[in-house]
UniProtKB/TrEMBL annotation:
It comes from the Eukaryota. SMART domains: TPR (SM00028). One of its GO terms (molecular function) is ADP binding. It holds the Pfam family TPR_12. Gene3D superfamilies: P-loop containing nucleotide triphosphate hydrolases, Tetratricopeptide repeat domain. This is NB-ARC domain-containing protein. InterPro entries: NB-ARC, NLR-like, P-loop_NTPase, TPR-like_helical_dom_sf, TPR_rpt. Residues 174-341 form the NB-ARC domain.
Amino acid sequence: MAALIYSSRKTRRTARTSIDKDSTYGVVYMGTPHQGGSGVQLGCILVNIASIFVPANDNILKHLERDSQWLQQQLSQYNPISGDFITKFAYETYETPTILGRKILVVPKASAVNLSQADAETIAIHADHINMIMANGAAEKIRSRWETGARVNGVRTRCHYIPLPKNHRFTGRTTVLEELRERLFIRRKCRKLALVGLGGVGKTQVALELAHWAKENQPDHSVFWVPVISDESFEQAYTELGRRLDVQINKNDDDPKESVRRHLESEGTGKWLLVVDNADDIKILDRHGGVGKYLPQNENGLILFTTRLRSVAVAAAGSDVVELLEMTPTEATSFFRKSLINESLLDDKGLRDELFEELTYLPLAIAQAAAFLNVTQLSVKKYLERLRRTEQSLINLMSQEFSDDGRYPESRNAVATTWLVSFDQIRRINSTAAELLCFLSCVERQDIPQSMLPEPPGEDVETAIDVLCEYAFLVRRGDDMFNMHRLVHIAIRVWVRNQNAVEETQSNAVRHLASIFPWDDEANRLLWREYLPHALYALRRSKEYEDEERSNLSYRCGTLLICGSTRRNTRLRCAYLDNRQIKEAIEIFEHVVAIRKKTLAEEDHDRLASEHELASAYLDNRQIKEAIEILEHIVAIEKKTLAEKDHDRLTSEHELASAYLDDGRLKEAIEIFEHVVAVRKTLAEEDHSRLTSEHELARAYLDNRQIKEAIEILEHIVAIEKKTLAEEDHDRLASEHELASAYLDNRQIKEAIEIFEHVVAIRKKTLAGEDHFRLTSEHGLASAYFNDGRIKEAIEIFERIVAIRKKTLAEEDHSRLTSEHGLASAYFDNGRIKEAIEIFKHVVAIRKKTLAEEDYSRLTSEHGLARAYLDDGRIKEAIEILEHVVAVKKTLAEEDRSRLASEHELARAYLDDARIKEAIEMLEHVVAVKMTLDMSSEDRAVSQDLLEQARGMLNLGSRRARRLIRWLTRRPHARRSHEG
């Protein structure tokens, strides 16, 4: 046996071996102890006795002990080549006498026979071990059995038919391959097994790898491969199979395939594996009209089906189904490397991973990309740019056919076309499912609610959905939500385009969405949040087609993307929806307005409504001038055409006042709000429109520093809403939030904290951790803690808010910058000057790019950065910024508190720079104005104390003055005088 093993290893290197594997026909084992022998222990005793007189070696006997590692190694090396020979195991049936007087079976049958080897047969020799080896009768019996075996073996000669070559680029899929081997060849738990998965996921290649593995590693099995892409491919494969098996065709049979089936079912054929590839039609398994009736049924046979359809898999193999998914990142990388000519394209891991994400780790898509890169020599970066350039560019790339020896000549290799046959098949078997496919090509591919799908009268939509799920074109996410594979989504659009049905499909989709799309009231909140992304997608895809349904759908979508005038317009206004997309709303409304300007009269209600919504979108996008221009136009028309008390007219006036407020035109805003509030006094006290206008008037009073008036209105609103609205109602919480902000502005810090803590507690129960409204209320609470001197608590909250908003909001987002500003201010008051400066510099840099020079938020951040520079000893930089801020704030009223705060800080900087006269001049102005204002004595004292100290510096030397001034300006009371 060892010689044969050696020969099998060396036969390609040399022909000079004592036993040539290729010329060996059979092997006879005469009582060979494959598992060790019972006589070994006796032999060891004799060796020990003999060693007293002569040198003796017991190594051979140790090799023959039971469970010998050496014996196991010999067997494991011989088993793979055993199928190349006829193997006979002879064993003794009588015990052999020993010199110690007892009899033993030297090599029992259990050790002499090893039936795990291919084509093995046992022969019982009626003799003891010694006589079995020496007896002529034993040799004659073996010769007789050998001749009989040779005749039988002639029938059982192995045969292989695998028309596709081994794929040398195959990689990975280890888990699936191990499961297939385990089920079919090791545990032998099933005779039929189905491999199911999406088209292009690599089912054929996995089955091919298994087939070639079986050919090389299962010597007792023949391996056959039958593609069932079509009836012709099946018939062709069976014809070739019959030829190779030398099947005698029964002339009485009308169908030669029947003769092949009977041959495979015959006992003499031996063991076999049959791969039935591409069984993608349930009719294939039909035992009456399909190819199913030609598939053999045999205890020695194994069948592996590959299919895209779960129904086929279950019909073919019952519960013995293995699902094949997309590649893992490691598998994708290895496969891509083997497919590329220039492996350096893999060097950039980031780009490589981006590419695999775009291709959804689908093997066919990766192979197609590699083929394209091999031909064009493009870089991965350039290929990605082409993929992302336009949809047409993506479709063109995904539609390019490429050569692949591992696939059938008649199959489509391009990703975008590999599913077209299935789409046509679906259209034949279920027209409703085909209509759903067309509709799905016009909406987003993820989070598709079943309630949104079209339901033709009299049609079974559930069955249609089941068909699409069966092909894996839809994947269920819960009971009534679905996802679609990204590349399948592209392929459907190619299919629709090939039918010249793009315009009809998109028009039908928009018409259906317009008919079911809900209005934006709270009761429909869940529905419109689910439908909105799909409606927007449909609108984007149908820009070149215009009709009334599209215009109506656009209008409804736009109203959901912005903060409409019917909602509470507080400082929280910029995020009524978590997923608002203001820029998209503007694009939609600009389009709707352009259409309605052409088709409707100037005073038409629908035209004015769409113009109003466009203005609201402009407001939310801080395009305040554009919003004002539109709203002034609307108000002018409605003043001519509508009564003073008309709801639409008051709504437009309300929105114009809000725009004036955002533009800093406080007097005009207040004038309009006061008018609207006065007119709406005729409405019930709890009327939503009335409360909304009162709320906005309070906000205008706050911005105009009419804090007492603002608090009075807000206390009234909160009192009413406590009676009429639930504790967790959004509007009630918004009003309470605004009242807390007013208390904070009025230095009623304890009252502000009490309300903020209540609002935060409610919103923690009802809103997610990253929700905009919850974060805004937490920001208000942090600001209140900050003003109350509870700096560490403020920092803890600010840090959490900033961390979340960095993940969820753009760098230039107003809310994110406001929170970063708050955190920087808290760090400053906590003595963490360097950290404060770092954040302030970032905020100022962003706001300089995005906001006007006079914008309040920008000026506030510049003021904060200057203060931090001042405390860090960077006096010149602080003065430069503060002089700019003060110059810009000259446009504000002399008594404006933010203006006074900046002037105070500039005076402090002048003192630090020993510019005492300029500091005194500035402080005298600040103190004089503060004396006329209703403010706490502490607020006045900060500037008065600094002024007195500055005056005392005039008679000191400059060096002593600087030391004293720095000590004075670093005192805690000085640090508290800044903008919140």
